[in-house]
Design a protein that fits this description.
The chain has 179 residues and is an alpha+beta fold. The chain contains six helices and six strands. Helix 1 runs parallel beside helix 4. The protein is globular, with a radius of gyration of 16 Å.
Length: 179
């Protein structure tokens, strides 16, 4: 058993995530990116990281949007298994149930963010990680142009994964380890 599998099993046991989560959700197992590069920082100084291929595609996407007068902000990129576990733990500590947490966050090992190919995108004047993002020029621009840069919306309305609609979550295809 490799180190990543051991870490994943430990997190799932600690959080109470069922062994058949992947099968039930339909989400593929996503391995962690072996290499990531810094693509920016949050106001609190924490670095945003992406896999090198995704970092280059993100840079191209942002530049193309800027040429069209649209500003895209990187809200989240690569996440480790442990970071994903902390996000779920925080939801549980706030009084939510595991089932509720797993509608807004994929279980560790199943988040596209592990690949370093997924980005949560915002734009100035819009609350972060809000469905109001779908009403922005940035979202309209992404719908028209993101595919030309290799990105796709991961969790549209009524997706089959049990994850809420996330107009802010886009991923560069193909995700490593899923094909």
């Amino acid at each position: 058993m490799d180190n990543e599998t051991e870490r994943l099993q430990g997190l799932h046991a600690e959080l109470g995530i069922p062994a058949d989560y992947g099968q039930r959700s339909g989400l593929p197992r996503i391995p962690e990116a072996a290499v990531t590069v810094v693509v920016g920082a949050r106001p609190d100084g924490r670095e945003h990281r992406l896999a090198p291929l995704a970092a280059a595609a993100w840079s191209t996407l942002v530049a193309a949007a800027e040429r069209d007068g649209v500003q895209l902000l990187l809200l989240s990129g690569f996440r480790s298994l442990e970071y994903q576990g902390r996000l779920i733990r925080r939801k549980l500590e706030q009084g939510g149930t595991l089932d509720e947490a797993l509608t807004v966050l994929a279980a560790p090992g199943y988040s596209e963010h592990h690949s370093g190919h997924a980005v949560d995108i915002g734009t100035p004047g819009c609350a972060a990680l809000s469905t109001s993002f779908e009403k922005t020029r940035a979202f309209a621009w992404l719908n028209r142009h993101a595919g030309h840069h290799g990105f796709r919306l991961s969790y549209p309305r009524a997706n089959g994964y049990g994850i809420i609609y996330e107009p802010w979550h886009w991923a560069l295809e193909p995700l490593p380890g899923t094909g």
